[in-house]
Amino acid sequence: MKTLQVDVAVIGAGTAGMTAWRAAAREGARVVLIEDGPYGTTCARVGCMPSKLLIAAADAAQGARDAASFGVHVGGLRIDGREVMERVRRERDRFVGFTLRSIESMPEEDKLRGRARFVSDTVLDVGGHTRVEARAIVIATGTRPNVPAQYEPLGERAIVNDDVFEWHDLPESVLVLGAGVIGLELGQALSRLGVRTRIVQRSAHIGGLRDPLVYQSALAAFRNELDLCLDAAILGVRRVGSEAEVRYQVPGCAEVVERFEYVLLAAGRVPNLEGMGLENTSIKLDERGRPLFDPATLRIGETPIFIAGDVNGILPLLHEAADDGRIAGRNAARYPDVQAAERRAALSIVFTDPQLAAVGLRFNELPPDAAVAEVDFADQGRSRIMLKNRGKLRVYAERDSGVFIGAEMAGPAMEHIAHLLAWAVQQRLTVQQMLAMPFYHPVIEEGVRTALQRLAGEMAE
Ligand SMILES: Cc1cc2nc3c(=O)[nH]c(=O)nc-3n(C[C@H](O)[C@H](O)[C@H](O)COP(=O)(O)OP(=O)(O)OC[C@H]3O[C@@H](n4cnc5c(N)ncnc54)[C@H](O)[C@@H]3O)c2cc1C
Ligand SMILES: NC(=O)c1ccc[n+]([C@@H]2O[C@H](COP(=O)([O-])OP(=O)(O)OC[C@H]3O[C@@H](n4cnc5c(N)ncnc54)[C@H](O)[C@@H]3O)[C@@H](O)[C@H]2O)c1
């Protein structure tokens, strides 16, 4: 077995790991980046990018359907599944190509292929062929889809997001298990692309929404176009020929037995931690089996080990993974001189239609005396003009200081509105300072102004 001595070893060449490698190298550390699976990152290969490509095709189909409401008739709609998937894969490969080029540009001696396993706090076994001795180690191993054992009898008829982006054609039917972020994004896209789609959710939650009024308005919008079964129990699944048969029940309704070409498991993601030899380290785990760490430094307890990206379970989003990588990489290189980092305002966006988003504090995190106000997009000028007048924006402020602390929303162009509001949260602007900013006419931001005016009124009372 070969022995490699480095300052920092980074496990996982995803977004967090690559950023950690770069940050540590910038500090002058000798770093090795260890990867077991394919290079290219979850985001580019099977996550953010291919899912948004599929959604873009679905939006085009929906745009053609909606055109008639404007008096614009585009003729018979024909969706060519092979062409749709060919573009998704082609553009996906292009994005993956950029990541691969970034990996290729790293010095060969900084890259190591194989599965990393802890031998101690500072020693790793990589693929049984190399012993890596490091002053500090960054775990950036990401997550993988949760595959409940109940679905194993379905064989290749039970699929996860990774499989969707390898399709060469669209299937006839899909049951989507889970109405979280992935279930809603992919479920709505497939439905709009003409796939018979049913989304089955075991609870009443959808898309991670917390504010009850935003939730109600989003649910009404989705119910208008999607087969969405909430609080449903899956009673059994079996494989029948080339189909998956699913038996499920929604409270108050009779049991349903239906067949689908695929069951898409969108039932959350689990951290890639097992089999890593954590028991050989002094890492302490929480009740869910995740390492206990300091979110400000990403250091695990008193160990020289750091944890970055989706695997740490804070906010499993791309920009957070990149920030984590920077913090963990720098702290690992400077270890034991570890510093707390400033985090950005929380921002998350779900690319459904209507789009869902949250910034700053969530509704369930608000102080008891927070001021809350809202605007409904049903009668909002610009939203109506575009026939996108669905959803609701709720805004939150600290009552005493008037500081804007968060918002949750469902509606048109929320990806942009959410950025605007996240920047205001991070700048700790007051509602009055926000209202002093310019607002054009007629734009969706005028809806934001209405909500803020109501929030100011609510605080004045
Ligand atoms: C369908 C989908 C859509 C998404 N859409 C968005 C979006 O629109 N916007 C957004 O912000 N986020 C989105 N995300 C989330 C985003 O993709 C993740 O937050 C991000 O990719 C996480 O990066 P990471 O570096 O933590 O993990 P990864 O990129 O998964 O990297 C982890 C790496 O570690 C390797 N590894 C694991 N164990 C070991 C080991 N023992 N030894 C060696 N290597 C190991 C893995 O092979 C992998 O390459 C989406 C995710 C999915 C699944
Ligand atoms: N637009 C984006 O930024 C984007 C898009 C996709 C994914 N992501 C990231 O990926 C993360 C994971 O997404 P996700 O949709 O997998 O997780 P999620 O937590 O959003 O949703 C998982 C859903 O599966 C259900 N579920 C869990 N176990 C189940 C079981 N055994 N049977 C039936 N249902 C079950 C849960 O009730 C939940 O609704 C998100 O939290 C998000 O951070 C982000």
TrEMBL record:
UniProt GO MF annotations = dihydrolipoyl dehydrogenase (NADH) activity
Species for this entry = Yanghanlia caeni
Where in the numbering of this chain does the Pyridine nucleotide-disulphide oxidoreductase dimerisation domain appear?
348-451
Q: What is this protein called?
A: Dihydrolipoyl dehydrogenase
Pfam hit, one: Pyr_redox_dim
Q: Which family does it belong to?
A: Belongs to the class-I pyridine nucleotide-disulfide oxidoreductase family.
Q: Tell whether Oxidoreductase is among the UniProt keywords.
A: yes
Classification from the root reads: Bacteria, Pseudomonadati, Pseudomonadota, Betaproteobacteria, Burkholderiales
Enzyme Commission number: 1.8.1.4
Please give the InterPro entries that the UniProt record associates with this protein: FAD/NAD-bd_sf (IPR036188), FAD/NAD-binding_dom (IPR023753), FAD/NAD-linked_Rdtase_dimer_sf (IPR016156), Mn/Fe_SOD_N_sf (IPR036324), Pyr_nuc-diS_OxRdtase (IPR001100), Pyr_nucl-diS_OxRdtase_dimer (IPR004099)
Q: Which cofactor does it need?
A: FAD
Boundaries of every FAD/NAD(P)-binding domain copy = 7-325
Which keywords accompany this UniProt record? FAD, Flavoprotein, Oxidoreductase
